[in-house]
């Protein structure tokens, strides 16, 4: 499958990134990442990820493509992606664990139901303040571990 991303812009953000938050923010703002999310369904992106991660090497462009796929998946609001990301304990990317926590802390499940002929969109409640503090502490621990 051909993945169309704005590689030059993403390279710039990748090389400038000094934290996983910076990388996540700028990759997610890049229109080609959102387009990637729209061009492929969740299963296709997961299959592309699995294929690429099995062949990962130290080539920066390859790593940028894998980050692009993971961040494109964060645009999806389905349980397939949530389950996939939750099952990944760790992958071979330096900042994956933090990106996983960013995704998990912002995930809100949206469901569509129909009552008396009217469509109703509902969202699961976002994480509580205590849960967000716990996630922030985990992220800080991960960052401190990487620095040491």
Strand count, sense and barrel status of the largest sheet are: 2 strands, antiparallel
Order of helices and strands: HHHHHHHEEH
Rounded mean pLDDT is 80
Count the DSSP helices.
8
Give an account of the 3D structure.
The protein is mainly alpha-helical. The chain has one domain. It has helices spanning 7-16, 20-29, 31-39, 42-53, 60-73, 79-87, 96-106, 129-147; strands at residues 110-115, 118-123. It has a two-stranded antiparallel ribbon with strand order 1-2. Helix 1 (7-16) runs antiparallel to helix 2 (20-29). The relative contact order is 0.12.
Give the SSE layout.
Elements: H1 7-16, H2 20-29, H3 31-39, H4 42-53, H5 60-73, H6 79-87, H7 96-106, E1 110-115, E2 118-123, H8 129-147
Antiparallel strand pairs: 1-2
What keywords describe this structure?
148 residues, mainly alpha, two-stranded antiparallel ribbon, 8 helices
Summary of the model, kept short:
By secondary structure, this protein is mainly alpha-helical. Helix content is 64%, strand content 8%. It has helices at 7-16, 20-29, 31-39, 42-53, 60-73, 79-87, 96-106, 129-147; strands at residues 110-115, 118-123.
């Amino acid at each position: 499958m051909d993945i169309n991303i704005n590689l030059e812009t993403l390279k710039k953000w990748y090389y400038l990134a000094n934290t996983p938050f910076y990388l996540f923010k700028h990759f997610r703002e890049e229109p080609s990442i959102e387009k990637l999310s729209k061009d492929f369904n969740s299963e296709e992106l997961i299959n592309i990820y699995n294929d690429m991660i099995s062949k990962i090497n130290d080539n920066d462009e390859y790593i940028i493509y894998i980050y692009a796929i993971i961040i494109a998946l964060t645009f999806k609001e389905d349980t397939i992606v949530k389950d996939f990301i939750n099952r990944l304990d760790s992958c071979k990317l330096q900042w994956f664990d933090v990106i996983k926590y960013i995704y998990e802390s912002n995930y809100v499940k949206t469901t569509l139901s129909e009552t008396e002929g009217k469509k109703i969109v509902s969202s699961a409640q976002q994480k509580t303040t205590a849960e967000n503090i716990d996630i922030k502490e985990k992220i800080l621990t991960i960052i401190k571990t990487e620095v040491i």
